[in-house]
Design brief:
The protein has 10 helices and 10 strands. It has helices at residues 12-25, 51-59, 97-103, 124-129, 135-146, 160-171, 184-190, 223-231, 237-241, 244-252, and strands spanning 3-7, 28-29, 41-45, 64-69, 80-84, 116-120, 151-154, 174-179, 195-196, 234-235. The radius of gyration is 18 Å and the shape is globular. The model has no long low-confidence stretch (mean pLDDT 93).
Length: 253
Amino acid sequence: MSIVGYPQPGKARSRALLEAFAQGCGGAVRISPAAVLEPGGAAFYGVVGIEHLVRLAEAEGRDWYYGDNAFFDRARGKHFRFARRALQPHALLPPDHARASALGLEIAPWQRAGKHIVVVEQSEHFLNMTGNRGWLGVVTSALRRLTDRPLRLRTWRRDKGKAAATLAADLRGAHALITCASAAANEALLSGVPVFCSERCAATPMSSGNLSAIESPRYPDGREEWAAGLAGAQWTVDELRAGVAWRALLHGG
């Protein structure tokens, strides 16, 4: 199967990770994105500068793959997620409890008496590409109609490490976290904070649905299995090169 990788312009990490993924699946890597896709499947890492190619691959019904940072902050820079025909998986995956344990993933009890709401914005590039332009304004306006709870707004930050360092403090005593599809939703669920997110987020299986339910969020069972499924859908660079991710994505897709 022919897979062509399309790195983000000027992003060394994007190119390096796509080269590793391509090695694992026997594909090739383009150095510069084109206005049209080459024949065959397509692989991407990140969206900045190549949004049109990601949208085109989906619109044409291509076999396409998308990679990004790990699902969980503790694996950031060590593991990298890839999904098939999606920016991230949004259904329950087969659990890999051994990988979850190796990552030290722990599931805290649900926080049922939280007070404030954490709102996590994503980059303009991501929101525009997914049809969520102006997401922050829409969500905050809706919340002001639906609840009197205080909001903690986490606007998008380029430095993900610094953003992750302050997330735990915002989650303490939180009633819920709201995002489009940020990995912050995964951290919230680990911490026992209910989540409201889009239908195409890795946290969707555990989410509380529509914002109209903000005062009565879900506290679903099964977070251990959900987290173990995501732990098995992110890989080290060596695993990408060895084709571990490729085989897993083909088997699941």
